[in-house]
Amino acid sequence: MSLTNASPSEAARAAKEASHVLATLPEPARNEALTAIHAGLTAAKDDILAANARDLEAARAAADRGHLSPSLVSRLDLGKKGKWEDMLKGVLDVRDLEDPVGKITLRTKLDDGLELTRVTCPIGVLLIIFEARPEVIANIASLAVKSGNAAILKGGKESTESFVAISKAISAALDGTKVPNGAVQLVTTRDVIPQLLDLDRYIDLVIPRGSNELVRYVKSATRIPVLGHADGLCSIFLEQSADPKMAVDVIVDSKTSYPAACNSLETLLVQESALDSLLPPVAEALLARDVVLRCDAKTKAALTASSTLSSSPDLIAKLEDARDADFDTEFLSLTLAVKSVADVGEAVAHVNAHGSKHTDAILTGSPELAERFMAGVDAAGVYWNASTRFADGMRYGFGTEVGISTNKIHSRGPVGLEGLMIYKYKVRGRGHVTADYGEGEGLKRYKHEKLPL
Amino acid sequence: MSLTNASPSEAARAAKEASHVLATLPEPARNEALTAIHAGLTAAKDDILAANARDLEAARAAADRGHLSPSLVSRLDLGKKGKWEDMLKGVLDVRDLEDPVGKITLRTKLDDGLELTRVTCPIGVLLIIFEARPEVIANIASLAVKSGNAAILKGGKESTESFVAISKAISAALDGTKVPNGAVQLVTTRDVIPQLLDLDRYIDLVIPRGSNELVRYVKSATRIPVLGHADGLCSIFLEQSADPKMAVDVIVDSKTSYPAACNSLETLLVQESALDSLLPPVAEALLARDVVLRCDAKTKAALTASSTLSSSPDLIAKLEDARDADFDTEFLSLTLAVKSVADVGEAVAHVNAHGSKHTDAILTGSPELAERFMAGVDAAGVYWNASTRFADGMRYGFGTEVGISTNKIHSRGPVGLEGLMIYKYKVRGRGHVTADYGEGEGLKRYKHEKLPL
After folding, report:
1. ipTM of the modeled complex
2. What number is the average pLDDT over the span A359-367?
3. What is the CATH number that goes with domain A2-220?
4. CB atoms A390 and B430 under 8 Å
5. In this complex, do A386 and B20 lie within 8 Å of one another by their Cβ atoms?
């Protein structure tokens, strides 16, 4: 990894050149580099934690002056229990994943001696813009090396000392390997994001990891494709035939197990015919966990009248009236918008109009309605009788993730190594020319025989 | 298909709503719609050809005044031999392709009763901006219906009468089918392209089909992902061990079989050690077909001194001196830039620095050098001993193509139906919640078992 104060365009040009070398390295060379990175970080532990302590000290002082949130300060801390070990283990976990490079995904015999193959290959140069968490840099450098992509990293200023220390260790480690030094670059100069976002000549994909504001800004400021999601407005449709206990369990998990996560529940749609039966125990369980319910008129009336809640004026007093905007809001906190819908068709229409194409679930005892919901909802994840919080690369078994995408092209949902790949078509011939083929007299026909992979 | 004078945002909103219905239609319903389109066009032949004749008349008058190129006028003509029949056959060809919707591409058992599947699904709403050729509209409407995507079509003004006549026929045909009317929309109002390109809320992918200028403009003017290519700067590296006759055949086909095509040869790189042996017969064959050769100093000197050409002062007089810009130019005509390089490494570096990532070939007798070239060149197509002009969806056996992409994400190279698909993850559970899983005491572990597709 090189640590650069070069101009953004010099850094990007160097990354592009390095990407062409990295793309041709065989798997053992990329894996050896990851082993070296692991060893280098292990050896540099004291220096890195000392640098992190300096970042932390500055951040705490800023927090005391009210310039930084305490939760951000907490995310900076590499010394927290298990964090350093997790970071190191992550490097080896990525190394041990299946090689995503060079997989043959199509083979066709175009004609005798003329064969077409489609082979996975790295995308090229990734620009990764991230905020405070310093361990992300080791994770992303590992993913880049494993997938054969060059990476330009631009981290949040609060972690600069940590980033620089980690970069130095990785850079020294890579020096003894076949991975070119320019393949992973940390850009430490300030205010260069707009310049980087303009370098579509060198940069193939931008991955912003951070707040919704960061992602929205990046998407609006570049012609380079952006992989990520600004919003995670997940919904659950509670259908009348759902199992009542399961409904409570899944909705409580979806809403309360980590309210600030992008895969947490933000809107609960309840079938009108189930307002008196299924909704009250769900509401009671949520209220008991301090969830604020913003209810439309029908759901509020049903809850107020229900035997479950009517004996608890305290709970009823906690119900709030939903405004229209609540159904377009990602609360990222213990607030939930609640609305009644007539049936699965209305639920699908609501989700398609108001959701963020992240993850939406139906709770129902009917396989037919479940399939209809999952076919009709346009989202990266569509679930039946399971918590929305399963939307995660680790939980899906991808080993790791570079993020979750709500894009409609390339990669969608949790994105692992596979999402950092594209393909190329290779044609191997023996001097074949197109003028020999056609419909006319004496011309050859294409064979287009599928070959085994 | 509806023919709309509605505002662009109304058209796009209607297309989005229709896309949600179209995405859930089973294959037979989509295929029946294509059969109906074929019948409708067949029945409306006289009306459509009469409308086309009016477009043609106006275009010929504009050409006479020098406002339109004669080649554009020729492309407008639906009455040309075979064109109408090809257009109709194309509709049925698309219908008979394998269904790209609902293919399962990953299945994982996350835990007992909790299964993850990845299923292909349509992208959503496509905006297709194209220029004059009126038959394209039938082709694109067919691809959209087959792939389950809604499409907004905006055609060049020279073909308006033809487009309207074809649209009316398709619209009437779709009325008797399950495909909603808003699923294919022709926008005929003028000057709406900037407004359409701003509708990223409704439109998921833009496919510009036309001149380099159109593609460049579209790419610079929208946040919506764009599928296509602005340039097709294809190169061939003639390595010293190439078979001489094969070199002549492949280079002549690549350059002269259709010089205006994006997969035609624009730059010839010749290994320095082969300048006296392999280059002269190639140059002679190209010059005999009126190809203008723009040569760097070394290749010009070799040709001037060669026994093949030195006896023909006429041919030598035709050699031109290359300027640097020639190696970054897509001539789209019978002009070829010619340059000497030391070896395969220099050839790869030249192609990566100057090419357009479309299609590049090596001609060599060495499998090892061929593989090195194909691994090192970052392009959608990398060929060994075959003409660059094979880069085409029909020739690759994709049945049809929506275009050729030089993008580095999603789809690359000739893009068929597969390139119009994305996927969604479906999770089917029995009330599973994430809080039950983890490393601690009493918590469950994920199974992550790969299941057969």
Report:
1. 0.93
2. 98
3. 3.40.605.10
4. no
5. no
